[in-house]
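Most newcomers find our protein records easier to grasp once they have seen one. Sequence and backbone structure share a record, each on its own labelled line. Nothing more is needed to start thinking about how sequence determines fold. As an example, a complete record with its sequence and its structure tokens follows.
=====
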Amino acid sequence: MALVPYDGNYLPVLSKLHNSSAEFHFADHNVRLTQDWNKLGVAAVVWDAAVVMCMYLELGQVELTGKVAIELGAGTGLVGIVAALLGAKKVTITDREPALGFLAANVKENIPPDRLGAVKVSELTWGQGLERYPTGGFDIVLGADIVYLEDTFPSLLQTMEHLSSESSVVLLACKIRYERDTNFLSMLNQRFTVHEVHYDKERDIHIYKAVKLPARRDL
């Protein structure tokens, strides 16, 4: 998730992003998230892709109970928090260093005390320090609105490959804005089997499910 502050000259349609908090009801819990657009920009507000991802997870189309999950570019942490509330055994919620204190506060505020030990907030800059994370060690890899900076595409793909095994499920919630976004999907298709599994017409959000292709075994 890019940490890009914005100035106060925003369109009225974006005004909700400047609210100091956002509230939701998922997994039979009220979730209240602090937002801070002025300090951390896009990393510190809830975007529609995260909301649609949580709605999709609530549908039960992906089994979370007992699974080990990781969220990339978590921002406010909504998706990872909801994954934990829906029964994931262990959830690692990641973003870049400047967002971690903010992210950890949202986790502490919304995860019940008896579940806090199952949720970890961790620094992850895509493509860097991946040895700190187990190769293929996650059942589910989650990302909401993380496909938008073209320069990050190779490192994002590298990170997804490292974290997932051939039995892992990668879920990406995306708004396809530009040609570069479809270019990322083309890159993803070279390493993963990719299917669109959900489309929210009202919010124009696509959810893609990706499964890592078997490693090539050259003769």
About this structure: The helical segments are 37-40, 48-58, 78-85, 100-110, 153-163, 179-191. The two ends are 40 Å apart (CA to CA). Residues 1-15 have pLDDT under 50 and may be disordered. The longest strand covers residues 164-174.
